[in-house]
């Protein structure tokens, strides 16, 4: 059975703002990108993959699209989804993305951040037993 996004994710931001707690959020979308870096020889981490490159790419695209101030992307420590990394989480939905690379950032910004449609192919499905624990 294919994984489907929860229906509330497809409601417009205006509707969600009126009908929920979102009125107090500072940003329409807040993106946290794992840049955790572990010691050499330790478990793999997003920082050694492309964490900082992802931060730079998100910031570049948000600025180019004049979204700075409405949306924010920032580095974060370990998101506890290391085996899926490089990992990114987008709030207010709390959608986790895994295996993200710099070529995916534009799609996440345009499809999810601007049009409220999460990029399903990159979403981590925590209910799928076949994905890493
Ligand atoms: S090191 Fe990135 S999620 Fe843990």
Summarize the topology:
Elements: H1 13-19, E1 29-34, H2 46-49, H3 51-64, E2 71-76, E3 88-91, E4 95-97, H4 102-114
Parallel strand pairs: 1-2
Antiparallel strand pairs: 1-3, 3-4
Helix pairs in contact: 3-4
Bound molecules: FE2/S2 (inorganic) cluster (FES).
FE2/S2 (inorganic) cluster binds near residues 80 and 85.
What does this structure look like?
The chain has 133 residues and is α+β, with helices and mostly antiparallel strands. The chain has a domain at 31-122: Glutaredoxin. It contains 4 helices and 4 strands. The chain has helices at 13-19, 46-49, 51-64, 102-114; strands at residues 29-34, 71-76, 88-91, 95-97. A 4-stranded mixed beta sheet has the order 2-1-3-4, with helices on one face. α3 (51-64) crosses α4. It is globular and about 50 Å long. The model has no long low-confidence stretch (mean pLDDT 88). The chain binds FE2/S2 (inorganic) cluster.
């Amino acid at each position: 059975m294919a994984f489907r996004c929860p229906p509330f994710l497809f409601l417009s931001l205006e509707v969600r703002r009126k009908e929920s707690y979102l009125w107090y959020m500072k940003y329409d979308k807040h993106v946290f990108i794992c840049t955790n870096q572990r010691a050499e020889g330790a478990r793999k981490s997003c920082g050694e993959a492309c964490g900082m490159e992802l931060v730079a790419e998100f910031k570049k695209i948000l600025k180019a699209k004049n979204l700075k101030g409405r949306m924010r992307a920032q580095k974060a420590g370990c998101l506890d989804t290391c085996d899926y990394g490089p990992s990114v989480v987008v709030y207010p939905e709390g959608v986790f993305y895994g295996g993200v690379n710099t070529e995916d950032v534009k799609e996440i910004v345009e499809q999810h951040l601007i049009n409220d449609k999460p990029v399903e192919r990159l979403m981590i499905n925590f209910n799928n037993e076949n994905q890493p624990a």
